[in-house]
Write a structure and sequence with these properties.
CATH architecture: 3-Layer(aba) Sandwich
Order of helices and strands: EHEHEHEHEHEHHE
CATH superfamily: NAD(P)-binding Rossmann-like Domain
Structural class: alpha/beta
Distance between the termini: 38 Å
Strand order of the largest sheet: 3-2-1-4-5-6-7
Helix content: 40-55%
Strand content: 5-15%
Number of domains: 1
Shape: globular
Largest sheet: 7 strands, parallel
């Protein structure tokens, strides 16, 4: 039975795989037997992530790329195929988020946030599509946010718009590429300890995080390794009949806020 989760012989690309949730995803895939290309803009973070993952799974490949740039995305896929032989799985995890005033958000910042958080999903998905066709199918997993679940935040206008677009792109790609044996799903995390939202240490936003922990049904925030098993499920044969799904993974937080 457990063989259905085995990723031996598979190759995965994880954008933003050099930290936070992406690093937890990469660790889970490698533990399940996949070769993994971790992608990020900062080489020093890639090197640290590589050291963290080294020795897990058959092979870890570092790819420096800005996934909001079409030429970088094409090179990312090319380097992955050259280094690992194929592509079977794509995790669109790269993202940025920061607060801004809705009334004065500059267009350049809006465009940058959408390029990194949403346009990159299209670019990466299009780039792996020919490789999936060669392989006879594939898996695309997008990492969204519970902010799209009837919630709002006054200073996250662009981020929320991008993640909402990701939800609907997930469903549309699932329909478009289902006949090609490509399953497309989206995971919606809640509060997860990461560089984007530190839940410990000097950069912790103590008042907000402590309040979220108090009301959350699981009485804690998430950590990157919470996404290992779910990622393996969505990347493996076990999820072949699951596509176009928006899967909330927030410890029940969206039920109480």
């Amino acid at each position: 039975m457990l063989d259905i989760f085995n990723l031996a012989g598979k190759v995965a690309i994880v954008t933003g795989g050099n930290g936070g949730i992406g690093l937890g995803i990469a660790r889970g895939l490698a533990n399940a037997g996949a070769a993994v290309a971790i992608v990020g803009r900062k080489q020093d973070k890639l090197d640290r992530a590589y050291e963290n993952l080294k020795g897990i799974g058959p092979k870890i490949l570092r790819v420096q790329a800005d996934v909001s740039r079409e030429e970088d995305v094409r090179r990312m896929v090319k380097e992955t195929v050259e280094g690992l032989g194929r592509v079977d799985i794509l995790f669109n995890n790269a993202a940025v988020s920061y607060g801004h005033n809705a009334a004065s958000l500059p267009l350049a910042e809006w465009n940058n946030l959408l390029a990194i958080n949403l346009t990159s999903v299209l670019l990466c998905s299009q780039a792996v599509y020919p490789e999936f066709k060669k392989a006879g199918g594939g898996k695309i997993i997008n990492i969204g946010s519970i902010i799209t679940q009837q919630m709002g935040h006054p200073k996250l206008i662009a981020y929320a718009a991008a993640k909402g677009g990701m939800d609907h792109m997930t469903q549309s790609l699932a329909v478009a590429w289902g006949p090609d044996n490509i399953q497309v799903n989206c995971v919606l995390p809640g509060l997860v300890d990461s560089e984007m939202m530190p839940c410990e240490g000097p950069n912790k936003q103590s008042k907000m995080i402590d309040q979220i922990v108090r009301v959350s049904p699981v009485r804690r925030y998430g950590v990157p390794d919470d996404f290992q098993a779910l990622s393996v499920f969505l990347a493996s044969r076990a999820s072949n009949f699951v596509t176009g799904s928006l899967i909330v993974a927030d410890g029940g937080l969206s039920l109480v806020i």
